[in-house]
Amino acid sequence: VAAVKDPDAAFFKKLDGFQPCEINELKAGTHYFAVYGDNFFKSVSYTIEVLSAASFPEEKESLRSVEGQILSKRVELSKFETEYREVLSQFTEMTNRYAQEMQAIDELLKQRNEIHACYTIAPQIKRSSSSRSKNKASFKESEDGLLARDKKQSKDRSKKKRWYNLHLKVDKRKPCGMD
């Protein structure tokens, strides 16, 4: 059940129960073998296999080498698991932040587009089927409005100009604030 919830855990726990094979040299004589386990309620059958390792010297060394590598890999895997969990946590945080940032940007762009839409929606012009003279009069009124606006802007400019033409006596050799 835990492996289904966290598939990475199965990978990281794969070598936890690993026990290397014991290859021992036995001297001539009588030997007793004891088998132990954690099952006290039922009897269990075991098979003990005893082989002569003298006929497999290369295999014996290869087995010891590979099992040594497996044991060191188990230690590496334990260290890697903690590093992996930290990075996975950071990755999850970053992907969540990415989604939030993307959503915030989309929302801001949507708001911007709505504001732009307000500028592009022109008020409807009232059209009437009256004579041409009224159209000429309205054209004159709009021209008069433009002229009045231009005069007002020129007055504003002259006020600004007067303000900027103030001549202040400044001695360039003295720094400001020093008498």
TrEMBL record:
Residues 138-156 have a biased composition (Basic and acidic residues). Residues 129-163 are annotated as: Disordered. It comes from the Eukaryota. This is Uncharacterized protein. It comes from Erythranthe guttata.
